[in-house]
Write a structure and sequence with these properties.
Number of strands: 0
Number of domains: 1
Shape: elongated
Largest sheet: none
Order of helices and strands: HHHHH
Distance between the termini: 34 Å
Helix content: over 70%
Oligomer: single chain
Length: 144
């Protein structure tokens, strides 16, 4: 399969408003989950606040961009692997790098950076999959 075939505009078009709504809800959930996990390992409200604000500041726009990317590409359309690929690229590749850098910069500890990043990522896997499932069932009316 040629690479050009993988990158086509999707047959299903989702409104920007729906993508934005999904992005905001995803961020609110992410803030709560990251804050709980970070506090559990640091026991510091300052570190928890700083890590959570910095991480989600970067990703408030990140979810919207990745959501639009997956609507734009035909790669894995109709495949049971599409949600897994979305989770892997977004949560493993991008989020781990960003969260790891931020956690280490704030705590100065490789151990805390590792447990925060791994615990957050492992929990976000099942949450991300469930989130995609729920949104695939929500009907959204758009005006043409």
């Amino acid at each position: 399969m040629k690479i050009a075939v993988l990158w086509r505009y999707p047959t299903f078009k989702e409104s920007h408003k729906r993508s934005l709504t999904k992005s905001i809800i995803w961020r609110v959930m992410g803030v709560a989950v990251l804050a709980i996990i970070t506090y559990a390992f640091t026991k510091s409200l300052f570190a928890t606040s700083l890590i959570t604000i910095l991480h989600h500041g970067v990703f408030i726009f990140g979810y919207y961009v990745q959501d639009r990317f997956w609507l734009w590409t035909k790669w894995l359309d109709g495949s049971k692997w599409k949600s897994f690929a979305r989770i892997f690229l977004y949560e493993i590749v991008l989020a781990n790098i960003v969260l790891g850098i931020i956690s280490f910069a704030v705590t100065g500890s490789l151990q805390q950076m590792t447990v925060i990043t791994l615990t957050y990522t492992l929990n976000k896997y099942w949450i991300f999959y469930a989130y995609d499932y729920v949104w695939s069932r929500i009907k959204w009316q758009t005006r043409e």
